[in-house]
Design goal:
Number of helices: 3
Structural class: mainly alpha
Number of strands: 0
Amino acid sequence: MTVAGLVTALAVGLLVAALGWRLAPRRREVPVWLILVAGIVTALLGVILARIVGLDLDGSGPWSIGVPAGSAVLGVALVLATAGPAPTRGAQPDLDPAPKPPVASRRVARPDLPWRKTP
């Protein structure tokens, strides 16, 4: 594998990831860095696997762009399909949505008491 093949895979992975993030309907739920990393990694994995299988990607044929682009598309689509919404900081989920009953011994101040004067 040559340096040019790795650079091509890197560029194709970034391009496919950017296009995938831009065209995704749920793009606000998935961080952009996750999509970019998935595009780069899957494009490089596609080139490595194609080299292991014996496909010559050193030339300028359609395989040199098609293999990293196809694997990056699959990787970005997989990440977009499986990534959930980003968690919000400090917010805890309400596990018991039922309203809590009032405590029997708690007093509730009435608005007509003398210390609650309204102007």
